[in-house]
C-alpha cells in the first residue's frame, strides 16, 4: 500500500518525526459531514457597536455559546470581530485587546471572521482603519494552527450588518463548509434576496444547471446542490454519457449530453429547458480543460481549444439564456476560475488566460444580471485533490500541497460547498466577486 506524506504525518511515528524536524503537520480538516452544526462553540464576539450586539444575538439563535469576554474559557471555537465603526487605526486597540490570548485558545477547525466596512471612504483616517483590517485577517490566516481559518466580510456603506447578504456570508465562513477557505475577504455590496426558509435545504425548489458534471469537481457540485434541495440538471459531452447517466440516477437529476463548444449549444439548452417547462435559477459553468505547454512551444490548437471550452462557450451560452425567458427569480451564475488565473502558472498560459477571463466576465456580467434580480460570481480553486492532480509527479504534488497556509490540498467538496453558497438567496449581495478556495495559497493575492 502506498503511504503518502499526509497519511504518514498523521500517524503517531509521523507526528513524532515531524515535531522533531519541523516538517509541516497538516490538520485533518473537519468538513460538513463531520461537523454539520452551523457554528463551533464557545463563540467570542469582540466589538462595541450596536451591530456587534445584533450579530451576537444571531449567533445565539444558531445555537452558539456566545461570550463577550474569553478570559474564563480554556478553548474557543469561534471568534467574530466586529469593526464596523472604526474611524481611525487607533480605534482597533480597545476592540482587539483580548484577541491575542483568545487566538491561542482556538480549537481544531476553529473560525475567525472579521466584519468591517469596505475601504471606500474619502476620509484618509477612516479608509486607513478599514483597509488595515484586510492585512490583519490575512496575517491571522497565516499564523493560525490546527485547521483554524480566518476570513473577512467587507460591507459597503449603506448596507446594514443585519442584511441577509451579511448573515449568509457569516454563516458560511463559520461553518465547516468553508474548511479550505482562509485569508479571503468577501465584499457585500447589496442587501441580498432574503434568508432561505431553511438553511439545511436552502436551494429547495430551485433548478440549477451544472456543465462538465459527469466526474470530479462537477459531480461533487451536482451532488452538493441536490443535497441542498436543488433540482439539478447535469450536462456533459456525449463521451461521458455513461458516467453522466449514473450520476443523474444517483441524485435524481436531469441529464443532458451536449458539447458546449457547439455554436448552437446555448439555444439547445434553452430548447431543453422550454421542452421540460423549466426556468433556471442558477447556472454553474464548471466545464473546463487543460492543454499545458510552455508558451514558446504552444501551438494554435492547444490555445484555441482551451479558450473555446473555458470561456468562449460560456459567453455564448450566457447570451442565449439572457435572450430567452428561461431565467428564474434571483438568478445566480457561478463560473469556475482558478488561482492560475490569479497568479499565473508556468506551462499554462492558455489556461491562465481563460481563467482570468472568467473573473473578468463575472465582474462585467454581474451588474447586468443585477438589473434582473440576479448576479454572477466566480470560484477560484487552488490545488484540489482530483483524478487529474493524481497524475502530477509525486514530488511536485507534495510541493503544491504545502504551498498554502493549511499545508494540504483541498477536496472537490470544498469547491462544491462554495458554489452552493454562491447560489443562495443571500448571495444576491455579492456582485462580481471571485472567492478563492485555496487554503490561502502563498502566491497571488
How would you spell out the order of helices and strands? HHEHEEHHEHEHEEHEHEHEHEHHEHHE
What spatial form do the alpha-carbon principal axes imply?
globular
Helix share bin: 25-40%
Enter the CATH topology name of the largest domain: Rossmann fold
Overall residue-averaged pLDDT value: 94
**N- and C-termini, Cα separation:** 38 Å
**Got a strand count?**
13
Provide key terms for this protein.
6-stranded parallel β-sheet; 3 domains; Rossmann fold; 7-stranded parallel β-sheet; alpha/beta; 445 residues; globular
Describe the structure.
The protein is an alpha/beta fold and 445 residues long. It folds into 3 domains: 1-26, no CATH class; 31-188, Rossmann fold (3-Layer(aba) Sandwich); 199-437, NAD(P)-binding Rossmann-like Domain (Rossmann fold). It is 38% helix and 18% strand. Helix 9 (241-251) links the parallel strand 8 and strand 9. The chain is globular, with a radius of gyration of 22 Å.
What is the element layout, followed by pairings?
Elements: H1 5-9, H2 12-21, E1 43-46, H3 50-61, E2 66-67, E3 76-83, H4 92-95, H5 99-103, E4 106-117, H6 124-143, E5 149-155, H7 164-174, E6 185-188, E7 207-211, H8 216-227, E8 231-236, H9 241-251, E9 254-257, H10 265-275, E10 280-285, H11 300-322, E11 327-336, H12 339-343, H13 349-370, E12 375-381, H14 394-402, H15 412-422, E13 434-437
Parallel strand pairs: 1-2, 1-3, 3-4, 4-5, 5-6, 7-8, 7-10, 8-9, 10-11, 11-12, 12-13
